[in-house]
Design brief:
single chain; about 210 residues; little secondary structure; 1 helix
């Protein structure tokens, strides 16, 4: 039976852990600021309350990892897999999540202000109460996502797919909606006075039959 690895002795700021197998590792409150974790296997790892400011997590496997309350300000997570990860109340301010897979991730009350989520996959993700102030979500897939009470002010949703998502009570002031798909999206309590939102709603795509 595979045993979770113990915490490596070289854990610390600016640590070089590229490609390391840290599956299921206990890294609770670890200081990994500026660390290189590119392509590391952190699936199922406990990174709750960890400091990962400006860490390199490109192409890392964080499937079902616990990142609650972790600090990932300006971290690089492009093309990383965070499917099913617990990111509740995480700080991802200015982080690069372009092309990342966040399907079914728990991002309740997470802070993603000014994050780069271009082309990210957030299918069935929970972003209830999350802050996405000024975030770039161009071409992102948010189908069936929970964005209830999310702060999307000034976010860029150009060509994003929000089909069947729940935007109830979300703050959408200043959002860029050009080309966004809002087919079957719930918009209860959302101000539809924004001109770009009105245009997006006027061009909803028909729901496929069958």
């Amino acid at each position: 039976m595979r045993q979770p690895p113990q915490r490596p002795n070289d854990i610390g700021p600016a640590a070089s852990l590229e490609g390391r197998d840290l599956h299921g590792a206990d890294l609770h409150q670890a200081d990994l600021r500026f660390a290189n974790l590119e392509a590391a296997n952190l699936s199922g790892a406990n990174l709750s309350e960890a400091a990962l400011d400006q860490a390199n997590l490109q192409r890392a496997n964080l499937t079902q990892a616990d990142l609650r309350h972790a600090n990932l300000r300006r971290a690089r997570l492009d093309a990383a897999c965070l499917e099913g990860a617990d990111l509740q109340r995480v700080n991802l301010e200015g982080a690069d999540l372009s092309g990342a897979n966040l399907s079914r991730a728990k991002l309740r009350a997470a802070y993603l202000g000014y994050a780069n989520l271009v082309g990210a996959k957030l299918v069935h993700a929970c972003l209830h109460g999350a802050t996405l102030l000024g975030a770039c979500l161009r071409y992102a897939r948010l189908t069936h996502g929970n964005l209830r009470e999310a702060d999307l002010r000034g976010a860029d949703l150009h060509e994003a797919d929000l089909g069947e998502s729940d935007l109830t009570q979300a703050d959408v002031r200043g959002v860029h909606w050009e080309g966004a798909n809002l087919t079957e999206a719930r918009l209860d309590g959302v101000s539809q006075g924004e001109p770009e939102l009105w245009k997006a709603l006027a061009h909803r795509r028909p729901k496929p039959q069958g």
